[in-house]
Design brief:
The protein is built from 6 helices and no strands. By secondary structure, the chain is mainly α. Helix 2 packs across helix 5 and helix 3 runs antiparallel to helix 4. It is globular.
Amino acid sequence: MAERPETMPATNAVALLLRQHEEIRRLCRRVEANTGRRREEAFESLRRLLAVHETAEEQVVHPIVRRIAPNGDRIVDRLLEEEKRGKTMLRDLERMGTHDPSFPPMFARLRAEVLQHAEREEREEFPVLSRRGHAELRGLAAAIKAAEAMAPTHPHPGVESAKSNMIFGVFVSAADRARDLVRTLTRGGRRGRR
């Protein structure tokens, strides 16, 4: 089972985000390396991590980078475009299901997009954040984890801004988490009857 992003220990925001990027890379490898139920479980973990992670970046990280980085608007606008494309692909893969024969090639495209996006963040955003003081980075890590604890657990393309996340996020998150609970409970019931 993948570690939930909101429970990952971190002493600063950059360390937390880098750890989550490594977990994303690990889960991508697990999705590609497995089939059947194991692929499905790995994909569900990845889907949840990506949805929660991107929401927190959109609420906490991007607004700061937009404000303090040279060319912050350009950097963040490009990242938000990438995030919207990624969320759309992730949503389509989720709807398709891991057993669909079209899943592997479409997942390969998502994986390439996600990894390229993570590298861009690490190259363009993280150095900007790293220049902040230790206390501020600790506070940002706490803010990221708080945002992740309340974030939607499924992709919602079109909700990439901090403002949109704040307006719609609570309702979407509640619906996603209820859906996840029902899915978990119904799977547990099916396993118990076998």
